[in-house]
Amino acid sequence: MSSPQRKPLQSGQIIFLLIATSAQARFLEARDKSAGEPQKARQSLLARRSPDFSRNFGVREGPPVEDMGAYGDDGSKHDSALDSNMWRSDKMSYDFPFLDNMEPVAPMDRLHNGDGVRDMDTHYISEYLNPDAFPTVAGSGCMCTSPTNPNEKIKCDCGKHSDNDHYTWLKDTPVHGTKNYTLTPADITYRQGNYWSPQHDNGIVAPADRMPIENYPNQAPANQVWPLPVSADGDKIPIKYIRYMDQTHARYEDCDTVSEECTVPCEPGDEVVAALGNTQVTAKVIKAFVGNAVQVEFAPSAAASATATADCPLDAACTAHRFCKGDGQCVAQRDDQSHNWAGDLVTKHVCPTGTQVCKTVNQVIMANMLQKDGKACKASGR
Fold first, then answer.
1. CB 216 within 8 A of CB 203
2. Higher per-residue pLDDT: 334 or 27
3. What is the C-alpha separation between 305 and 125, in angstroms, rounded?
4. Could you tell me which of 298, 278, 267, 269 has the C-alpha nearest to residue 367?
5. What is d(CA 294, CA 317) in angstroms, rounded to the nearest whole number?
6. Residue 288 forms beta bridges with which residues?
């Protein structure tokens, strides 16, 4: 049997063989070259993600991750001061990536350095830049008097103490016009607490008011310590866990409108702030009723500019949103639309024809809708 004859190669096949041989040679060259170089550790997709994008797990904190421990740092500086860190590992199975910030800033609401013109950048101080691992603050504090003579000692009257008093830090506040000052338990959390000064409105520092980043929080050079708050070596833990404990405790301490420690008695004659829907008015308590209800009296805002007003007793059923008195009952204002000299549409809120704005409004509401001295009211009659 005759052997098969090999067919001659065509021109296209010759070109393909040359390309394949060249590619194979380059692959072998690259492999031999990389064999003598140290191999880079393989990174996970999370580790390789770009810092310009938000995290895709948990609550998004925005680019970059919010400052912690020190202004301009993500907490690495704080955690590097730990003698050992049992929470870190080379394996992702030992990581706990879901310990998120309970007070995050939306990515589009963040402030970044470099956005200002002519070096006029603002600073944003995060609410838990320096959290407190032991946030319990309870106690009345002391009233102290400075000595007049060098040999005298400071005298302090700390009142009654209870077993629930617990605090580590005290804040001194001078009583103006006297030699006295108060020492009150303070929350050292920066900036959420009440210890550090100056206080920043919503954490935003104007360009003209900004300090060097190492001055947040601001400390006298001779008193400067870090990290804050100071803890014993055996009590130090990663800063994300400190923030979680501090934020959880703050939520536990939030006041309600019924607990004894969160309410204050409101009697007839007391001036209070009434929260009626999305409207707040300054009111006066007239009567207190059974069931924690009170009668309050207040002047609607429209009464200040009204040419004529009407007396509105309780049976007129007037409210903060319905204060135009007609035939014995109150109705709401209506929209009066017109065009000005430029042709623009102008809308005004006016009382309907035949009604007048109430001089004062009397309304019965629940006492927990009122606040006095920053606490919810509890109806109390004389």
1. no
2. 334
3. 42
4. 267
5. 15
6. 294
Phi, psi angles (nearest 5°) of residue 250: -60, -40
Q: What is the pLDDT of residues 338-375, one digit of tens each?
A: 888 888 888 888 999 999 999 999 999 999 999 998 88
Would you say 135 and 186 are in contact if contact means Cβ atoms under 8 Å apart? no
Structure tokens at 131: 């959290």
Specify the length of the chain in residues: 382
Tokens of 320: 């903060």
- Please answer whether residues 236 and 346 qualify as being in contact, where contact means their C-beta atoms are separated by less than 8 angstroms: no
* Bridge partners (DSSP) listed for residue 205: 123
d(CA 236, CA 84): 10
pLDDT confidence of residue 57: 45
Structure-block tokens of residue 118: 């002519």
The token pair at 139 is 């106690």
Cross-strand pairs, 215: none
Contact 266, 288 (CB under 8 A): yes
Helix (H) or strand (E) holding 266: strand 263-266
Q: 381, 268 in Cβ contact below 8 A?
A: yes
**Type of residue at 64:** P
Q: In the chain, what is the greatest distance between 2 CA atoms, to the nearest angstrom?
A: 129
Q: Is 269 helix (H, G, I), strand (E, B) or coil?
A: coil
Residue type, 251: R
Q: Are 247 and 103 in contact (CB under 8 A)?
A: yes
Pairing of strands 375-379, 263-266: parallel
Structure tokens at 201: 């409105």
Are residues 115 and 121 in contact, defined by beta-carbon separation less than 8 angstroms? yes
* pTM given for the model: 0.56
Beta carbons within 10 angstroms of residue 244's beta carbon: 17
